């Protein structure tokens, strides 16, 4: 009620990105958030309304801080190999978890995820001049490589096949 | 225990059984526009609850009624902390409701879906 917030909202949201990006939504309790964000429970509810409200704020922050810069870099990628490398080196933990876990259950999350993936596809279109469907295939492959880990060799093999297609 | 349901444009919280005696309230009706969200929060019962007036507070047994904390009013009706749901409000007499429900996950989806 008009009391100044005794915490840095931006820092708290950034800490929530790390927490929600590393663990399932249900695996992050309000106690975890209170302990890791340096926020009192009351302030957390007052500021974000609910755990879901904080999750949405964290997801949007992740898209702005981590995914948008990737799209910008992708748009300047000279070839598929670079596009794959940029994507597999990015920190996309929360985006991937959101796509798998929350998007099917939460329309707002689904819309954010779809829009972010669309931005990545468009960046690949802009960079490589390929059709939108192929760009979507390339970003899907890149995210798949990121999920599997140890992306270098599989990525190189894929790029070797794809790059002459430009 | 509380029953939470949506009635048109309102969120209705019905306090069940003897709890309404301790909580001194049998139901609360909140316009959905004043509901900010719902969260399952088993840990909240371990936090300081502030000063009770009026209602009943027997630590470890029941927390029911109106509590004053940091200049806010919080309505409590919880015996089993593992089933506590926090409903955050705006522009209401209570800043938030902390109520025990049968199925916290279902209650959270019900409220969050009604808002979006």
TrEMBL record, chain A:
<dbReference type="Pfam" id="PF00440">
    <property type="entry name" value="TetR_N"/>
</dbReference>
<keyword id="KW-0804">Transcription</keyword>
<protein>
    <submittedName>
        <fullName>TetR/AcrR family transcriptional regulator</fullName>
    </submittedName>
</protein>
<dbReference type="GO" id="GO:0003677">
    <property type="term" value="F:DNA binding"/>
</dbReference>
<dbReference type="InterPro" id="IPR001647">
    <property type="entry name" value="HTH_TetR"/>
</dbReference>
<feature type="DNA-binding region" description="H-T-H motif">
    <location>
        <begin position="29"/>
        <end position="48"/>
    </location>
</feature>
<feature type="domain" description="HTH tetR-type">
    <location>
        <begin position="6"/>
        <end position="66"/>
    </location>
</feature>
<keyword id="KW-0238">DNA-binding</keyword>
<keyword id="KW-0805">Transcription regulation</keyword>
<dbReference type="InterPro" id="IPR009057">
    <property type="entry name" value="Homeodomain-like_sf"/>
</dbReference>
Automatic annotation (TrEMBL), chain B:
<protein>
    <recommendedName>
        <fullName>Bacterial Pleckstrin homology domain-containing protein</fullName>
    </recommendedName>
</protein>
């Amino acid at each position: 009620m008009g009391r100044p917030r005794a915490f840095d909202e931006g820092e708290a949201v950034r800490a929530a990105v790390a927490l929600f990006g590393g663990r399932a939504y249900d695996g992050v309790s309000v106690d975890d958030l209170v302990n890791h964000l340096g926020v009192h429970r009351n302030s957390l509810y007052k500021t974000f309304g609910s755990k879901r409200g904080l999750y949405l704020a964290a997801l949007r922050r992740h898209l702005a801080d981590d995914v948008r810069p990737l799209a910008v870099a992708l748009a300047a990628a000279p070839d598929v190999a670079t596009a794959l490398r940029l994507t597999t080196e990015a920190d996309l933990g929360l985006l991937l978890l959101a796509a798998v876990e929350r998007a099917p259950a939460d329309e707002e999350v689904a819309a954010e995820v779809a829009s972010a993936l669309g931005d990545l596809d468009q960046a690949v279109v802009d960079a490589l001049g390929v059709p939108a469907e192929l760009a979507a295939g390339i970003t899907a492959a890149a995210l798949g490589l990121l999920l599997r880990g140890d992306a270098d060799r599989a990525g190189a093999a894929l790029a070797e096949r794809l790059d002459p297609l430009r | 225990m509380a029953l939470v349901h949506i009635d048109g444009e309102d969120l209705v919280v019905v306090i069940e059984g003897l709890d309404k005696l301790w909580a001194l309230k049998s139901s609360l009706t909140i316009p959905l526009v004043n509901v900010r969200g719902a969260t399952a929060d088993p840990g909240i019962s371990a936090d300081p609850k502030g000063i009770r007036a009026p209602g009943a507070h027997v630590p470890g047994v029941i927390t029911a009624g109106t509590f004053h904390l940091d200049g806010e009013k919080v309505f409590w009706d919880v015996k089993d902390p593992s089933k506590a749901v926090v409903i955050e409000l705006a522009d209401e007499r209570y800043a938030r409701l902390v109520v025990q429900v049968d199925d916290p996950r279902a209650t959270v989806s019900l409220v969050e879906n009604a808002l979006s």
